[in-house]
Each structure stands twice: as C-alpha cells, then as structure tokens.
Specification:
single chain, about 140 residues, alpha+beta, 5-stranded antiparallel β-sheet, two-stranded antiparallel sheet, 1 helix, about 20% helix, elongated
Length: about 140
C-alpha cells in the first residue's frame, strides 16, 4: 500500500470514529439535559440611528409630514414594518417604529438588526394612524 493510500484509509477511519463520537456525545447530552424550557419568541427587529445630527420621527413616511419626535445619534428604536415611498438620498425605504406613539423614520439613516417585513405583510391594525378619521381624504 502506498503512503497516499495509507493516509486516505487512515483519514476515513478517523472520520468514522469522529462521527461515532459525535453521535454518542449528542445522545449523552440529551439524556442529561435539563427539562425543556419554552423557546423564546421571535426577536423583534430594531434599528440604530446612524445620522450624526439625529433623526426626525414623522407622522407619515414623507419628509413633508409633520415631525412627531426626534431620535439621537446611535439611539435604538423598535421597528414594526417597512414601506417604499419617498426617496431620501437614494433610499426609498421608511420604517414604522414601535412604541406608544408609532412614527416613521427614513431607512437611509437607520441600520436595522435583521429582517423587517413589509407593512402589507403585518397585521393591518398595527399600521393605521391612531385617529384615521382625522386624516381621511375624500
């Protein structure tokens, strides 16, 4: 048997042994594991404000909309969903923020923590303004 063949055969033996060892450890871990705990719910996405001067929170996803609040640089804000509307410096995404007074912020100045659903995929009642009759058009 050549040196290469010996090394290949030895590698296969080591791989088989490692697989068996991993299986034994997995079985042992499940036998001695603590009782199962409830899995935590899905993490809610959040964002961090990247604008050096901070960021205005708006009533609607537009720079023409009234300002409802202000977030400082590096502030963390909970995100509900996103929409594509007015383009702000090359980014047309806006986030609806979580909180007792939901507001909109431009995604241009927010770095998000993970996947944020589009608002059409979120429960409709969470996206409506607090007083829809006041803002009705028609």
């Amino acid at each position: 048997m050549s040196t290469t063949e010996n090394l290949v055969a030895r590698g296969k033996e080591l791989a088989a042994g490692a697989g068996a060892l991993a299986a034994a450890v997995a079985v042992g871990a499940t036998l001695f594991a603590a009782p199962a705990q409830a899995a935590p719910g899905p993490l809610k996405p959040f964002g961090v404000v990247t604008a050096k001067k901070g960021l205005s929170q708006r009533q609607y996803p537009s720079t023409d909309s009234s300002v409802r609040g202000y977030l400082r640089h590096r502030a963390q804000v909970g995100l509900v969903c996103k929409v594509r509307t007015q383009n702000v410096r090359g980014n047309s995404v806006w986030y609806l923020t979580r909180g007792e007074r939901p507001a909109w912020v431009s995604a241009k100045y927010v770095t998000n923590s993970g996947f944020v659903k589009y608002c059409k995929d979120v429960q409709h009642h969470r996206v409506q303004p607090s007083n829809p009759a006041k803002h009705a058009v028609g």
